[in-house]
Design brief:
With about 200 residues, the chain is of the alpha/beta class. The protein contains nine helices and eight strands.
């Protein structure tokens, strides 16, 4: 399940998140994150969950831990762990997925020790969708994190059709895509194209 194109439904970029999700699911995306930095809407989470589960996909909620308990997983940044006991968070998540953004090999090893299911690494390339993303780490930076952990790694940040092959060559199990889907005139076609490129032996 934790492989391939990891679609992100970013509320700041997508006006109709449920309709947008349906396009991604129709294209074959099976791992989806809902990101709403201005505040997660629980009714939207429930509607998205209904669609992902019907499609045999999973929905992961970014940042908002309590909302994530209504979904299939939680994705956190390092700052989301401040003052919190990772073991308690892992216990409350139960069988749900736990993903953690990591910028270094040490953080990736720590994520594995605290029971994460996958780690995020990036930004792979320059990105405007996350103001605090930091400088791009590229293929080499992602590869270093891949080498540091047995967990699946999702590369994120500035990923589109032009650099997807480089992402795959980094050893990442997944490529998280935001703008290249949200700003596409046909999100379903864009997602299907990315999936085909990822699966191509030439990628």
């Amino acid at each position: 399940m934790l492989a391939g194109i990891y679609g992100i439904v970013d509320r700041s970029l997508v006006g109709r998140p449920v309709a947008f999700l349906e396009e991604l699911l129709a294209a074959g995306v099976r791992v989806v994150q809902y990101r709403a930095k201005a505040g997660v809407e629980r009714d939207v989470v429930r509607a998205l969950c209904e669609r992902t589960r019907a499609a045999g996909a999973v929905l992961i909620v970014n940042d908002d831990f309590e909302a994530a308990l209504e979904a299939d997983g939680w994705h956190a940044g390092q700052e989301d762990l401040t003052g919190r006991d990772p073991r308690e968070l892992r216990a409350r998540l139960g069988r749900r997925l736990f993903g953690l953004s990591c910028g270094t090999a040490g953080e990736a090893r720590a994520a594995e020790a605290m029971g994460a299911n996958y780690v995020g690494a990036g930004p792979f390339a320059a990105t405007a969708t996350k103001a605090d993303a930091g400088p791009a780490i590229g293929r080499a930076g992602v590869a270093a994190i891949v080498a540091a952990t047995r967990l699946p790694v999702v590369a994120i940040g500035g990923i589109d059709a032009s650099n997807l092959a480089e992402v795959k060559r980094s050893g990442a199990a997944m490529a998280a895509v935001v703008s290249a889907l949200a700003r596409a005139s046909d999100p379903r076609a864009a997602a299907a194209d990315l999936i085909a490129r990822w699966r191509s032996p030439a990628a």
